[in-house]
Amino acid sequence: QVQLVESGGGLVQAGGSLRVSCAVSGRTIRWYDMGWFRQAPGKEREFVGQISWSDGKTSYADSVKGRFTISRDNAKNMVYLQMNSLKPEDTAVYYCAAGGVPFRQWSAQSTERDFDSWGQGTQVTVSS
Fold first, then answer.
1. Residue 72 CB contacts under 8 Å (≥ 6 apart), including other chains
2. Above 90 in pLDDT, residue 109?
3. Across residues 41-63, what is the average pLDDT?
């Protein structure tokens, strides 16, 4: 059984930085794309970004491009989301997700349906 556990969320002032981590057990992430999503109060869950299994390339939502960076450590089975220049509108619960298909052909336009395992989420709050 695959388990994903996020950590590192918290309260930060606008303009600040935060790194959230995702620890995966029950499956090696080496062959899977990994993604981050977020859900703000009263809104649908939205795609934040993803990282490829094959060469580590990434894609991001326009709203976070240039501010957020996703990385992975396959040896540790960990995925990270570095968030810089945070804005109040980044306030949300952040979810880590594991791709549902190994060796997946890269698509920069991924959706929730491309991921089959999810963490419980970690709250990130950005104060103005």
1. 29, 34, 51, 56, 78, 79, 80
2. no
3. 96
